Amino acid sequence: MIAVAAPHRYVPSRRDLLRSGISLGAATSVGGAGAAHASTAWEPPRAQGERGMVNVPFEGFENVRVGLIGLGNRGGSQDVRWGAVSTVTAVCDIRPERVSRTIARIMQQGFQDVEPVGYSAGEQDFLKLVQRDDIDLIYVATPWEWHYPQARAAMEHGKHVAVELPISPHLDEIWSLVRTSERTRKHCMLLENVNYFRPELQMFNMVQAGLFGELQHGSGGYVHDLRWPYLFGGAYHPEHWRRRWQTRMNALHYPMHGLGPVSAAMGINRGDRFDELVAVASLPKALALFREEDPRVTPDHSSWQDRPYISGDRHTCFVTTARGRFIRVEHDVNSPTRTPGRPRSPAPGGRSSSTTPGSTSNRSATTTTRGGPATPTPPSASSTTTGYGRCWKGWPTSTAGTAAAISCPSSASSS
User: Fold this and answer.
1) Which residues, including other chains, have CB under 8 Å from residue 108's CB and lie 6 or more apart?
2) pTM of this prediction?
3) What percentage of residues in the chain have a pLDDT greater than 90?
4) Is residue 150 predicted with pLDDT exceeding 50?
5) What are the backbone angles phi and psi of residue 299, rounded to the nearest 5°?
6) Contacts of 383-390 spanning 24+ positions with Cβ under 8 A
């Protein structure tokens, strides 16, 4: 059995706050060091036996056996999906009632005859799950600080692992997962679901077909209001875990829903790679203001025990690639923006109830082309305007060398 350290729990000093940087949080991207991590930006050297896992296929399985770690807001909605396409042999959560609920939901589907084994005896009980010999792949849907130790433990015990976003907030941990995957020959997958939505797959296939010529620039991000219920409204367990990351580092905590599809279209780690980045952030104002003004945040709410919020409300990051292209990444979950299908977080007047002009979404993406074949230009008559921007309904023939801007609405689910 390998030793697995508990997630980092630290109190940032003034020096830490000055050093805190950005984190893109994907194993195939660059990111900044966290407040307690002075990680180098340079790639660590490979040890003997470590070699890349890009384009390495999975071994064949007659029946994929899956273990689930984390059965809350995200994992608690994915359990029946795993049960429909695989055999779930074990499940784990720190709350026994969530383990019992998941086992019952999986068995009610009728796809398997043997109940999953449950683990709920504390924070380290997942180690018993990863040691089982009847699991091929482990799904991790826990708070961000647990992603790294659980993913690494899974691979060290011979399992492939699929991890919800972000795969880790710290660059040194991301490189550790990359090297562990290369050494154990087990895949470590970042579960960026937006890559597989129909509009994003349409765009990806159009890029692959050469319809946009040579891509020069892309943009995307994650911009919509999560203050209620995700940051203050008890949507998670523990209630405070996502909000308190904004007291630990000034970072783009969760931009991958836009960055992932752009990276796929640009062939990141498949002919190009991220090289350098620079980021700026606004002042951290919105969360403290929301806590003060919203009547649902009562005097006994846990947020009054939070340390000062240090993560800016709005972040913009520019990433350059080795081939000279660049990507703009946006992140803002604190500002009062409007998401299609979701009412604005109600607040009693004041600045908290305003809207942010020109807000974008977690799925906005722009590609700029140069000198390619005919580029589709969406007609105004077949487009609709939403809070996410413009969503094109049709694609007629057009001239070459123009820019195509695609921005379509999506669900507001959070991991």
Assistant:
1) none
2) 0.76
3) 67
4) yes
5) -60, -25
6) 386/340, 387/337, 387/338, 387/339, 387/340, 387/359, 387/361, 388/340, 388/360, 388/361, 388/363, 388/364, 389/360, 389/361, 389/364
pLDDT over threshold 60, residue 2: no
Q: Tell me, letter by letter, the H, E, C secondary structure of the chain.
A: CCCCCCCCCCCCCHHHHHHCCCCCCCCCCCCCCCCCCCCCCCCCCCCCCCCCCCCCCCCCCCCCEEEEECCCCCHHHHHHHHHHHCEEEEEECCCHHHHHHHHHHHHHHCCCCCCCEEECCCCCCHHHHHCCCCCCEEEECCCHHHHHHHHHHHHHCCCEEEECCCCCCCHHHHHHHHHHHHHHCCCEEECCHHHHCHHHHHHHHHHHCCCCCEEEEEEEEEECCCHHHHHCCCCCCCCCHHHHHHHCCCCCCCCHHHHHHHHHHHCECCCECEEEEEEEECCCCHHHHHHHHCCCCCCCCHHHHCCCCCCCCCEEEEEEECCCCEEEEEEECCCCCCECCECCCCCCCCHHHCCCCCCCCCCEEEEEEECCCECCCCCHHHEEEECCEEEECCCCCCCECCCEEEECCCCCCCC
User: CA torsion 313→412→300→356, rounded to 10°?
Assistant: 40
What's the burial of 103, exposed, middle or buried (CB within 10 Å: 0-12/13-18/19+)? buried
Q: Could you tell me if residue 267 is left (phi over 0), alpha (psi between -120 and 50 degrees) or otherwise beta?
A: left
Query: Which range has the top average pLDDT, 20-29, 48-57, 392-401?
Result: 48-57
**Statement: residue 28 has pLDDT above 50:** no
CA distance 245 to 103: 31
List pLDDT tens digits, range 348-381.
444 433 333 333 344 444 344 444 444 444 333 3
Q: 83 φ, ψ to 5°?
A: -65, -25
Distance CA 319, CA 24 (A): 10
Tokens read off for 119: 């683990």
pLDDT at 383 over 60: no
Cβ count near 393 (within 10 Å): 11
